[in-house]
Design brief:
Chain lengths: ~270, ~240
Amino acid sequence: MTSVSVIDELKKAQILELLKQGKRIDGRTLDEPRKLKIETNAIPKANGSARVYLGDTEVICGVKIQPDRPFPDSGDKGLFICTAELLPLSHPTVETGPPQPPVIELARVTDRGIRESHMIDVSQLVIQKDKSVIGVFADVVVVDQDGNLFDACSYAATAALLTSKTPTWKMVDDSPSIVEGGEKQLPVNTIPVSVTMGKIGNYIVVDPNGDESESMDARVTITTDSNGNICALQKGGSDGFTQEEIIQCSELSVKVGAKIREQLKLAQQENR
Amino acid sequence: MGGRDANMVLLDKNGIRCDGRKVDEPRRIMIRAGGLKNADGSAYIEFGDNKILVGVFGPRDVHPKHMSNTDTGILRVRYHMEPFSVGERKNPAPSRREIEISKVIKEALEPAVMLEKFPRTAVDVFIEVLQADGGTRCAALTAASVALADAGIPMRDMVAAIAAGKVADTVILDVNNEEDQAGQADMPIGYMPSLKKITLLQLDGVLTPEEFKKCVDVGVKGCELVYELQKKALHDKYFGNRGD
């Protein structure tokens, strides 16, 4: 009946003991992410969508594209907003009500990775300068949790955006009106991929699962773009990384990210 | 919710509806019991173009404590729509409509769940509408019953639900979104077929007393149909060989 997410000391000790032998509790190597499964067009009513399974973590992203007012200081750019939310059915410890700090961090890190990579070419999303622009909303919901929500949310949002189609609007009588048959792919510059690594003792593991997340001392999420450049980073957890460890993490994020990017491209092609 | 056509024919002269169904024909219904790893019980339903996920937790401790009841357990239901579930993006915060639906679904489930066996505890039912297309409360209630059963919570019966309604002066079963928007009446019904009790009933629209009787009758028959699918979903999970 009680359902607090407390990992036993025994399991924690076991995770550490296995790492000393170069092994992980679920049999992966240290730099190996879990199996990633991407289903695009999961929500046909959205302009783009994806259901992503990263191991037993499951998230859904739906993209809605609609006319909006531009921000006063950037009338020549469309809007891109990404949110992330934990659904209360995803874990017994999730409570309804205003989001807690970890969830706010999750949403902001997911948004930042995509925004800072300039994935969406917002300059192409203008209907009339300073008056009306296209807003792209990527809402991600976590359906089932088993660690590393950061990457699952990022992959779902990216896959949904890659397969999104936007209508075309033109101004008629000072208000945007849909142009029939004007549907086209969302303008995309690059494919950002986030890779989260956990630090357990002195070991760095890629894509920590639920048990590993409970026992890790620190965490870092690094997003890379299609050119292999690093475009966003977030460190979390109550321990630090040495300089060498951070460099190791950045190299891992490029290497692991490249493979995941291929999978995202494949999902995009299959959707066409 | 997408292209609503003012001149749409809701019922043609052959008695065929705007989506090709006959007057007494429900939409395609697929129910799956289970599926979520962390929830104590769960269910997923596709009811036409509705896609709804339900997770159940409990019986478990009540927070905040003052909500607990020393005589019985309590049922808490949250019905929530995702921002991408409808045509125009929905604000993720709960609306007045969602709060009302949460309440009617809770009151529809309460007669079915043996809460008195679990004093001082709560059973939480979380309903997430991933895609909406008319009739979400019925689909949600149907799936919530399966999720409660999947959680192993003692129940007197399952509640099956479907809407009856009226378009073009004709009583129909399972009102879709277009029929709800442009039709004459929409009457969601939740019914416990073994106990023969109606636990949810709402009505929007005008019906004559005869039409009302017919709507209830059509709705109850529809619920009996849905009930078979609920039982099949549980049977498939616990006695089938689907391997999940």
